[in-house]
Write a structure and sequence with these properties.
The protein is an alpha+beta fold. It contains eleven helices and nine strands. Strand 6 and strand 7 form a beta hairpin. The protein is rod-shaped, with a radius of gyration of 43 Å. The site of phenylalanine has 11 residues, from strand 8 and strand 9.
């Protein structure tokens, strides 16, 4: 091997050592062994050499190529090892590190009760209908047999947003909206937010109601009672019973207040039922004939019942909550307790 070739090897070795990564090393290698590289160019010189010297020259260049190939192969192997070691270090997982905890959300108790109610009543064939939260005076009161100056308007302190526009005080407004659209038979369930200027431990200015309406031929108070019994058994306790007490709502006649036998003491009397054995859960009644007439339903052919309950109230009873504010404070320590 002549001096020129020795120099070439040393130069290649230096460049190969200096290559920072596989790509740079490959480029160096190509400069020597690739097409048009230094070694192939040497071979080109064969033509300029005297015939008898050619075999020796060829041998020499081949030896040079082999030497360079070895050199690059060795460098490549070392480079690969280094790169692998680096990757392993970078991607190392410390299995002794404490894991990251993923906080899991839960359904809000009001959402849970609402879904449970929808489950129970859709099982009885009720369909969900949702009315608007901003209502007209007509749907919230007048069509529900509560004209202006009617004393029953005082039962619900109303937030007005315009002269005849208000935040609905009751989901009963949905009864009218549905009956205007759909002719009997009707079995409607209407959940939603309602608003009243009212604020203490058991009242909040915004709360949720679940309205029910059934209209068909031959519907009686017995149908209401039977359905309520079924509801109480599913919602509260297998042994739960209901009782109806006379009450007053302008849009039902007769009107009733519905009590459920206390599911804590079984009716003997305890702090929850305040010693009475009964807990008030909702208002209901037979749809007033004026309401049916207001919606174009003939009260001499059809009859119906309606009921309305506060979802927060049901949640408070079911989960034993002492203050309605717990349901709006968004304290995760409280909310996290409602898991399946
Ligand atoms: N809308 C009444 C209330 O908010 C409840 C109710 C609904 C009563 C349907 C009778 C029938 O108090």
């Amino acid at each position: 091997m002549d001096q020129e070739q020795q120099a070439l090897i040393e130069e290649a070795e230096k460049l190969a050592e200096g290559a920072e990564d596989s790509k740079a090393l490959y480029d160096v290698k190509m400069r020597y062994l690739g097409r048009g590289g230094k070694v192939p160019s040497l071979m080109q010189r064969m033509k300029e050499i005297a015939q008898e010297l050619r075999p020796a020259f060829g041998k020499q260049v081949n030896a040079l190529r082999e030497k360079l190939e070895e050199l690059f192969a060795a460098r490549e192997a070392r480079m690969k090892e280094k790169e692998m070691a680096k990757r392993l270090e970078e991607e190392a997982v410390d299995v002794t590190m404490p894991g990251k905890k993923r906080a899991e959300g839960t359904l809000h108790p009001v959402t849970r009760v609402k879904s449970e109610l929808i489950d129970i009543f859709s099982g009885m064939g009720f369909e969900v209908f949702e009315g608007p939260e901003v209502e007209t005076d007509h749907y919230n009161f007048t069509a529900l047999n509560t004209p202006a100056d009617h004393p029953a308007r005082d039962m619900q302190d109303t937030f007005y947003v315009g002269e005849k526009l208000l935040l609905r005080t009751q989901t009963s407004a949905g009864q009218i909206r549905l009956m205007e659209k759909k002719k009997p038979p009707i079995k409607m369930l209407s959940p939603g937010r309602v608003f009243r200027s009212d604020d203490d431990a058991t009242h909040s200015p915004m709360f949720h109601q679940m309205e029910g309406l059934v209209v068909d031929k031959g519907i009686t108070l017995c149908d209401l009672k039977g359905m309520l019994d079924e509801f109480a058994r599913t919602m509260f306790a297998e042994t739960a019973k209901t009782r109806l007490r006379p009450s007053y709502f302008p849009f039902t006649e007769p009107s009733v207040e519905v009590d459920v036998s206390c599911y804590v003491c079984g009716g003997h009397g305890c702090p929850l039922c305040k010693g009475t054995g009964w807990i008030e859960v909702l208002g209901a009644g037979m749809v007033n004939r004026h309401v049916l007439e207001n919606c174009g339903v003939d009260p001499d052919v059809y009859s119906g019942f309606a009921f309305g309950m506060g979802i927060e109230r049901i949640a408070m009873l079911k989960y034993g909550l002492g203050n309605i504010k717990l349901l709006t404070e968004n304290d995760v320590r409280f909310l996290g307790q409602f898991r399946d």
